[in-house]
Amino acid sequence: MTYALIIAFDGPAASGKGTLASVIAQDYDLPMLDTGLIYRAVGFLRAQRGLTLEDVEQLVEIARTLDTQTLDNPELRGREAGEWASQVAALPEVREALKRFQIDFAHQPGGAVLDGRDIGTVIAPDAPVKIFVTARAEVRAHRRWLQLVKSNPDLAYEDVLADIRLRDERDSSRSSAPLSMADDAVLLDTTDLGIEAAIEHARRIVRDRRGSF
């Protein structure tokens, strides 16, 4: 490998970018970082410690001293943690505190695969491969509902859809590193794609982009 193969997956919640990033990381034997888990961890610890969003200094300290082992906590995958993540991610001070960790991970020898909201635009704008994964809000909400209803049978699809729309609005309108597609990213709309088809599309994009460098 003559250059660092940094592969950036960006996109809104439940678009499938995490699943695709995981598969591609395995394909190329690269380390992978789900950056959403970093924000989920900060949000989780905020709630656990009874802090509010106004406790910015304490939240920044949590971000600066975050232990990567915290990311293995299964509670970070839940619905509440996702909402907490979106809240703390809207704070520029928290985003800045977590920025260096992500940049260092992306630019380690050989490269890495990262998925998030601002990988291709802020964390690794130099990434040779950028994929922006999206899908209609209703489709993303249904996917997320299918995941969450297994552990919460009373959860209504309409509530998940409302959460998805709220997170989309918050992620796209925040002042610091809003969700947006990099100019040189390839769009992958998974609305009408099954998981295997989406994986094949992602693999093709990576192969094509690698071939241009």
TrEMBL record:
UniProt binding sites for ATP: 11-19
Subcellular localization: Cytoplasm
Location of the Cytidylate kinase domain: 7-206
Pfam short name (any one): Cytidylate_kin
UniProt entry tagged with the keyword Kinase: yes
A Gene Ontology molecular function term of the record: dCMP kinase activity
GO biological process terms, semicolon-separated: pyrimidine nucleotide metabolic process
GO CC terms in record: cytoplasm
Main location: cytoplasm
Family indicated by similarity: Belongs to the cytidylate kinase family. Type 1 subfamily.
Protein name: Cytidylate kinase
Native organism: Asticcacaulis excentricus (strain ATCC 15261 / DSM 4724 / KCTC 12464 / NCIMB 9791 / VKM B-1370 / CB 48)
